[in-house]
Amino acid sequence: MKSLSSMRVLYGVLLGILLILSITAPMVGVSQKAPPPGLPEVLEFEMLSLPWFPQSDKAAEVVAEQLSKIGIKVNLVRLESAVMYPRIQRTFDYDSFALAVSQSPNPVGMLIAFHSSEARPGGANYWGYKDANVDNLIDKAFEAKSESELKEYAWRIQELVSKGPFIPLFVSQNIQIVRAEWKNYTLMSGGIIEVYNRWSLLYMYKSDKPDENVFRIAFPADILSTNPFMATDLRSLWVINILYDPLVALDPNFKVIPWLAERWEVSDDGKTYVFYLRKDVRFHDGEPLTADDVVFTFKVGIGNKTARFAALAQFVESVEKIDDYTVRFKLSKPSYLFLLSLATNLVYVVPKHIWIDKPIDWGNPEPVGTGPFKWVSRKAGESIVLERNPYYFVKGAPRISTLVVRVIPEAETRFLAIKRGEVDMERYSALPTLVPEAEKDPNLKVIVTPDIWLIYVAFNFRRFNDTRLFEAINYAINREEVIKKAVLGYGSPVYTILNKEWHGDLANRNIVFEYNPQKAVQILESIGYKYDARRGVMVYVGPPAATTPPAEAPVATPTITTPARVAEAPNALIIALIIGVMVVAIAVLYLLRRR
Amino acid sequence: MSREFVNYLVNRFFQVILIVFLGFIAAFIIFRLLPGDPTISLLDPRVPPEAREELIKRFGLDKPLYEQFLLYLANLARGDFGYSFVYIGVPVTAIVFGERLFNTIVLMSSAMLTSAFLGTFLGLMMGFRGGFLDKLFTSSLYLLASAPVFWVGLLIQFYAGYRLNVIPIAGTTSFYFEKVPIYVLALDYIHHMIGPLIVLTAFFTPLYYIYVRNVISSVRSEDFVLTLKALGLSDLRILLKISKFALIATVTIMANESALLIVGAVFTETIFGWNGVGRLLYDSIFKADYPVLQGIFLVTIVVVATANFIADILYYILDPRIKVRGLTRR
Fold first, then answer.
1. C-alpha distance from B40 to closest chain A C-alpha (Å)
2. What ipTM was predicted for this assembly?
């Protein structure tokens, strides 16, 4: 017993020494310095991620792994949206996060997110990016009168913003697995049936007998709303999109074309738009569509700051009726983006005679619109049935006679249901892992188009505002590998906030960050970071002495250029030795005790 | 009915009411502790900030907490559970009650009754009999109990649904717009229920089996059983006599599992696309739809409290010892 207790004392002493060493060890590592404001002491970031959105979550994993290779440590923190969103939108309590943002042919949504006025809680500029030049350019872009003028501003904005805290990774691809008997669909960015694509559902058919064209589509979850003012999710909007019509629509090349308005006139100062409505449009209940409905819709929608219409408020000053089929929009400033916004903001004309006495967030249980399909029934959480509107103003369309939306939550189940012919296709992209199986089946067709999601990581500009840091991170990310690992190659790399898949020529294709980890390290070292081998992370040691890059002049004066590394090596060695001896000593003592 | 029994019932009843009320208050507190904001559920928050603030105001989330609490109680008294954060303009009662609750209760009650019957019966037989068959059943049911529900579900879906093509892949019906007679609809409904029912039965049966088997195999060696044997009673008679013990076990488990009557089939309903409360719960958690979650929570409180109340009555009838304890505990 006695010998044992003396052993215990020894253990205690040894452990105590170990403890003290572990506490003091960091102090004798690389000679760390306090960095200037806006730079972290250690390149170690927390990255928030949503586990239920696998594309961005897996991308975050790959990015973390890639950054760790050059000594930037990224700790992935997986949070539920209810916890994560308030942190990135309101309290700004984060280092970085990975997420996806939906793309539309309209650049406004992406551009506005870099305006400093949106950096407030609840604004679109989550990353808190602030640059007076960019603000100025965005304001000008919104007032651009032509596409070429807009493009000029957009390209300059992208040049500046690509050095910012928002690091786009890739636009994923939409994989549609469709029953092979369906033909005559239209390919567009977003997929054959995305909301910006009004064409496929008008002209798709599988049989020459009209009644046999029953189209069944599987949704992963129920729609949330049939209210055209308030709906925000793309499932609800998909249904609303075919029940209602917009004033103007998009052709397959994302150019604005007449829809409910058969033509329009713009005044010379660009501030007045006069829309001439089609005269052959009727709501599903038989009432004709008139200027009253259009004026009512826009007044109520914009006046109540509803989700769908609020963004138009920056353009529209007033809407008034000229006669039964003519409407005048007065803008506060001339803008090329107004018409595009009208087409891409998913704003639909509702019947005044139904909505006049309803609250703006009315549940709208049996929607009445002008669209190609009309409402039949819905079982909440299970199915929605629509049928073709025989009086639709596009002649000979739609060819689908009955459209059934079914809710099937599991991706694998949806695939089995398509394979077995219970449904014809699904709303969103299928899992890339299912593609080989689908390609083997002669009853199925696989259609790949660019998807609506831009996957990105963003850093908190409120905490870190040295753009060289983000430049280095841009070079340290291998986007091809991210795409390969996160979405099995179904994506295309993106280097700036606008992309060719969605914004065409507005995307500045000159901006490319080729994967170049050496360059990333060089940039970080020029800021003043140095790799601390013991901690496996880069720490701030102050910028290299003098303004000449140290790597260029290694022969001149070795005493000045590498003092930190000289001091670092013996420290680490000594500590490693001491710890090793301790461990061996404890092991020996433990063995002795056992006997 | 004895006077004592009536007293007991009245007492328990008031306890139940009190517990339900406390549960309602707890529900309020829990859901206010969470970040309550109807705009957080959007993956792609492309909603203009003005629209967000408008939305928060609409839900009264900018009001002081005590005011919210009074509103909550007043609304509950009127049977109003509030409006969903994500299903715009739709009251919670319309989402939770109705078809979803019906589907879940039909599915879960048939699964629970089937597995209670199966589990109790098997447990009774094996516990009484012992031997090789007992070992075989016990070990294989333990295996079944530890198999993940979603895995069993996917297996059944793939083999029975896709390969053999004998059950539908998903949903509760195959008729969405066709006009068919009611009995066809009912048969179709049952046809769709087979898959989830098998999965749930596979999940619940071992619970009953293991519990009942253990109770019976320990009762089997008690003195009074030996006495009965010595008196020359047949095995069947003895089994019938001690089956009362098994019933107590079954009632206990059923009362304990009663919460699952509402929310128990989360995975099963999700895999088979069964339109029930379990799947609603799953969706609502992802979308942070607190009013709906709160609604499900409240319904669950009522169901659990009621189930335990019924279980207490059954105990009273089945086992006099529990009756005495129940009375003297006060």
1. 6
2. 0.71
In tens, the pLDDT along B7-20 reads 888 888 888 888 88
**Selection from A78, A73, A131, A137 nearest residue A107 by Cα:** A137
Angle at B181 between CA B175 and CA B187, to 5 degrees: 65
- Give the global pTM: 0.78
Rounded to 5°, angle at Cα A353 from A347 and A358 = 75
Query: Do the domain assignments include residue B330?
Result: no
The pLDDT tens digits of the residues spanning A7-64 come to: 777 777 878 877 777 666 555 556 677 888 888 888 999 999 988 888 899 999 999 9
Reading phi first (left if > 0) and then psi (alpha if -120 to 50, else beta), residue A198 is in alpha
CATH class belonging to A246-362: alpha beta
* Domain boundary, last residue among B96, B111, B134: B96
If one looks up domain A44-171+451-524 in CATH, what number appears? Answer: 3.40.190.10
Residue type, B124: L
CA B104 to mean position of chain CA atoms: 9
CB burial class (10 A; 0-12, 13-18, 19+) of residue B133? Answer: exposed
Distance from C-alpha of B183 to C-alpha of B106, rounded to nearest angstrom: 17
Choose the closest CB to B44 out of A102, A123, A362: A102
Residues B152 and B292 in one domain: yes
Count interface pairs A-B at CB distance under 8 A.
164
Distance CA A387, CA A159 (A): 48
Tokens of B186: 């009912």
Per the listing, tokens 């913003």 go with: A161
Which residues of B fall within a CB distance of 8 Å from A100? Answer: 43-44
B231: domain CATH number?
1.10.3720.10
